[in-house]
Design a protein that fits this description.
This protein is α/β, with parallel strands linked by helices. It contains 7 helices and 10 strands. The chain is 31% helix and 21% strand. Strands 7-5-6-3-1-2-10-9 form an 8-stranded mixed sheet. Its EC number is 2.4.1.-.
């Protein structure tokens, strides 16, 4: 039985189309990369990266003195952490260079003023010895409440409910509203507790990270060596009595200081601004800014009695 010519022609055309289809598929497998591995590049040949949010600028304010080895670890770590979150930021290391005892709160007041003058609309009050590890710790602009990053639930050392130290993010207008931090706290401790009372009285709520998969051991890394670098916990004159009360006199508006110099420091391609700051002390109001003065007086009195 003979096959009609039109059927033979149809079979021929079908075979050609089928072979062409197979050939095209084979070529595409070799020449077109899988979508998940394809590079996205700009016309200039540069790889595209996600854009930063330019609507806000974070000022990271770090009160500082004699912690250079900690700074060398902190600077590249925090820059990498914030860059991964696409946060526009400036880092201010407020280095106390006067003869007085360390005053963390006053240095934060100074750093806030510098950050605002540089265009920052919110700040992170940040200890140099506390490194965030969990990438879910957000440093983004707090639209409603303050954000206490170093929650007592996850902080390596401090676990009481009113703790707001370590790392606290606050908007410019809220810091101004409570008049910043008290300037009466020379030496280590209690300035954060006084600041918590300021926030509470102003009706400002503090939010904290929740439902993290990490815990006390691995949410942060605390790099301060308490044996090698002992904290200045001395209490002299009437310091203990005064600093247990709410300070309604001093704060952001009256912090007294002089900027001696500013320097840009690069650590592993991470740049921070070092601000050498000289604080001023009113010895009538806070004589404990120099406990050595009381010690000299006590020594002199003992020597006088022994004569």
């Amino acid at each position: 039985m003979m096959v009609p010519p039109f059927i033979r022609t149809f079979k021929y055309i079908f075979m050609c189309l089928f072979v062409t289809f197979l050939l095209a598929c084979s070529i595409s497998l070799f020449l077109i990369p899988p979508s998940g591995k394809e590079d996205c590049r700009c016309p200039s040949g540069q790889t595209l990266t996600p854009t930063f949010d330019n609507s806000h600028l974070l000022g990271v304010v770090v009160p500082f003195r004699d912690r250079f080895e900690e700074l060398l670890e902190f600077a590249p770590h925090i820059v990498k952490f914030l860059t991964a979150q696409k946060i526009n930021h400036k880092i201010f290391i407020i280095n106390q260079v006067d003869q007085y005892r360390f005053n963390r709160a006053s240095l934060i007041n100074v750093g806030f003023k510098l950050a605002v003058s540089a265009g920052c609309d919110y700040i992170a009050m940040h200890d140099v010895d506390l490194l965030p590890l969990n990438t879910n710790l957000s440093y983004h602009y707090p639209t409603t409440t303050l954000c206490h990053i170093a929650s007592p639930e996850y902080h390596p050392r401090y676990h009481y409910n009113s703790f707001v130290g370590g790392i606290l993010i606050i908007k410019k207008e809220d810091f101004i509203r409570v008049n910043g931090m008290s300037n009466k706290y020379w030496g280590w401790g209690l300035e954060d507790d006084e600041f918590f009372v300021r926030l509470k009285e102003a009706g400002l709520n503090v939010s904290r990270p929740t439902n993290l998969t990490t815990g006390i051991e691995n949410t942060f890394r605390h790099i301060h060596d308490r044996v090698w670098r002992k904290r200045d916990m001395a209490k002299c004159f009437n310091q203990k009595e005064v600093t247990r009360r709410r300070d309604r006199l001093t704060g952001l508006r009256d912090v007294a200081y002089t900027i001696r110099s500013k320097h840009q420091l690069s650590v592993d391609s991470s740049t921070v601004t070092i601000v050498n700051t000289e604080l001023r002390c009113n010895r009538t109001v806070t004589p404990w800014c120099l406990c050595s003065a009381e010690k000299k007086k006590e020594t002199s009195n003992r020597q006088g009695k022994g004569r």
